[in-house]
Amino acid sequence: MVNVPESELTGFVQNLPGALGELRRSLRELLDNFWDETYRSRVCEQASALAQAAKLQGLVRIFTLSRALASICFISREDALPIRKEIGEKLRELMGMLDAACEESLEEQAG
Q1: CATH 1.20.120 is right for the domain spanning 12-110
Q2: Residue 15: how many other CB atoms lie within 10 Å
């Protein structure tokens, strides 16, 4: 897991859409190149860093969703291949839920 100093989290919620955009692109690459180690590692690192930052900010829903996404990336290629369709669906579902949680966090901060 990547360590993020708390002092660098200023403006975390405002930067969340960009971070999710990067994660979404990496996730798309992972699914296009199913379970290639390079793409799998990138998604895992991004999702883990997002989870840690969200935890520090007290954003429980974003923490939980990004941690779940990262956890799926630990499934071995051999175990993932037979359930490829289901894994893809779950990862896309989690990404959609992350997008919704991001919107809620932005609305809460603005309101």
Answers
A1: yes
A2: 12
